[in-house]
Fold:
Amino acid sequence: MLDLHGWGELADRLNALSRRQAWAEMAAEIDDEVLGTFAVAGDAAGVAAGLRERFGGVLDRISFYTPYETDPAQLAAVRCALAAVG
Structure:
Protein backbone atom coordinates (compact mmCIF):
# COMPACT_ATOMS: atom_id res chain seq x y z
CA MET A 1 0.00 0.00 0.00
CA LEU A 2 2.81 2.42 0.81
CA ASP A 3 4.39 1.74 -2.58
CA LEU A 4 1.15 2.80 -4.30
CA HIS A 5 1.58 6.21 -2.66
CA GLY A 6 5.22 6.50 -3.69
CA TRP A 7 6.56 5.46 -0.30
CA GLY A 8 8.17 2.16 -1.29
CA GLU A 9 11.43 2.98 0.47
CA LEU A 10 9.50 3.74 3.64
CA ALA A 11 7.81 0.35 3.38
CA ASP A 12 11.22 -1.32 3.13
CA ARG A 13 12.53 0.59 6.17
CA LEU A 14 9.43 -0.22 8.21
CA ASN A 15 9.66 -3.87 7.26
CA ALA A 16 13.30 -4.05 8.40
CA LEU A 17 12.48 -2.24 11.65
CA SER A 18 9.52 -4.54 12.35
CA ARG A 19 11.76 -7.58 12.04
CA ARG A 20 13.96 -6.03 14.74
CA GLN A 21 10.84 -5.12 16.77
CA ALA A 22 12.05 -1.51 16.75
CA TRP A 23 8.57 -0.06 17.32
CA ALA A 24 9.68 3.37 18.54
CA GLU A 25 11.96 3.75 15.53
CA MET A 26 9.09 2.74 13.26
CA ALA A 27 6.86 5.41 14.75
CA ALA A 28 9.54 8.03 14.11
CA GLU A 29 9.46 7.11 10.40
CA ILE A 30 5.77 7.99 10.04
CA ASP A 31 5.34 11.69 9.30
CA ASP A 32 2.09 13.68 9.28
CA GLU A 33 1.59 13.19 5.53
CA VAL A 34 1.73 9.40 5.81
CA LEU A 35 -0.45 9.37 8.92
CA GLY A 36 -3.03 11.65 7.30
CA THR A 37 -3.24 9.36 4.29
CA PHE A 38 -4.35 6.40 6.39
CA ALA A 39 -5.96 7.93 9.49
CA VAL A 40 -8.39 10.65 10.49
CA ALA A 41 -7.18 12.57 13.53
CA GLY A 42 -8.34 15.54 15.55
CA ASP A 43 -10.93 16.48 18.12
CA ALA A 44 -14.38 14.89 17.99
CA ALA A 45 -15.79 17.39 15.48
CA GLY A 46 -12.67 17.17 13.31
CA VAL A 47 -12.73 13.37 13.25
CA ALA A 48 -16.44 13.37 12.38
CA ALA A 49 -15.90 15.88 9.57
CA GLY A 50 -12.89 13.94 8.26
CA LEU A 51 -14.80 10.66 8.22
CA ARG A 52 -17.72 12.30 6.42
CA GLU A 53 -15.36 13.85 3.87
CA ARG A 54 -13.61 10.54 3.14
CA PHE A 55 -16.52 8.14 3.34
CA GLY A 56 -19.76 10.16 3.24
CA GLY A 57 -20.89 8.97 -0.17
CA VAL A 58 -19.69 5.41 0.33
CA LEU A 59 -20.60 4.21 3.82
CA ASP A 60 -23.81 4.23 5.79
CA ARG A 61 -22.27 2.63 8.91
CA ILE A 62 -18.96 2.86 10.70
CA SER A 63 -17.48 1.22 13.76
CA PHE A 64 -14.42 2.08 15.77
CA TYR A 65 -11.77 -0.49 16.53
CA THR A 66 -9.53 0.60 19.37
CA PRO A 67 -7.11 -2.14 20.41
CA TYR A 68 -5.91 0.10 23.21
CA GLU A 69 -7.54 1.74 26.21
CA THR A 70 -9.78 4.57 25.02
CA ASP A 71 -11.77 7.15 26.91
CA PRO A 72 -15.43 6.19 26.32
CA ALA A 73 -16.38 9.88 26.49
CA GLN A 74 -14.12 10.63 23.50
CA LEU A 75 -15.72 7.89 21.41
CA ALA A 76 -19.17 9.09 22.45
CA ALA A 77 -18.25 12.64 21.40
CA VAL A 78 -17.20 11.42 17.95
CA ARG A 79 -20.44 9.43 17.60
CA CYS A 80 -22.48 12.48 18.59
CA ALA A 81 -20.54 14.69 16.18
CA LEU A 82 -21.10 12.18 13.36
CA ALA A 83 -24.82 12.09 14.08
CA ALA A 84 -24.98 15.90 14.14
CA VAL A 85 -23.17 16.21 10.81
CA GLY A 86 -25.43 13.63 9.13
